[in-house]
Amino acid sequence: MRQSISFPVLIALLFCAGSVSYADETVQSPAQKTFEKLKATSGNWIGKSTKGWEDTTTIKVVAGGSVIVEESFGAHPNETMYTMYHMDGDRLLLTHYCVAKNQPRLMATEFSANGDTVTFTFLDGTGMKSRDVGHMDKVRMVFLDDDHFTSQWTWYQTGKEDWMEEILNERVKK
Question: Which stretch of DSSP H or E encloses residue 126?
């Protein structure tokens, strides 16, 4: 016996997968487009902060292309931090493993029309008794070109944003 699926259910299933195909053309969601941009940052980077410090960052695509791992060293003396990006359905999520000994999880909530800017905002986290415990709460990334992007991080504690800095990242050429 042949079963049929209704058109609205078919459309919902396609959107849940993150893209819809029309003939030979695939239309990606803003989150999926941004995830692909993040994948293209794979490699080694030098970051220069508006607070005066520098760090080295290595970005890798792992787990069959489903996770982006960003390893940052130097933002805090002799400390390494990790930020992981992945899709969850049609949501783009970021988990930051911080020197503050907590793990805030942020969700991409704003996308520019051209896909060059994304803002992640606090969703939840582990290692925090409440949201008022100091943590990275927001990050805005701007993809300038294939070899440059900025990230602007916001620290949140006791009900307010305490500081924000911008990091200019430049790809290390071999």
Answer: strand 117-126
Q: Is residue 2 part of a domain?
A: no
What is the residue range of 35's domain? 29-171
Q: Which CATH number goes with the domain that contains 67?
A: 2.40.128.20
Domain count, the chain: 1
Of the candidates 8, 40, 31, the residue with the CA atom closest to the CA atom of residue 146: 40
Is residue 155 within 8 Å of residue 137, measured between CB atoms? yes
- Rounded Cα gap, residues 69 and 33, in angstroms: 17
Q: What are the pLDDT digits (tens) for 15-49?
A: 445 544 444 457 889 999 999 999 999 999 999 99
Q: What's this model's pTM, rounded to 2 decimal places?
A: 0.82
d(CA 41, CA 72): 14
Q: How far is CA 109 from CA 75, 104, 119, 174, in A?
A: 26, 15, 6, 35
Residues in the chain: 174
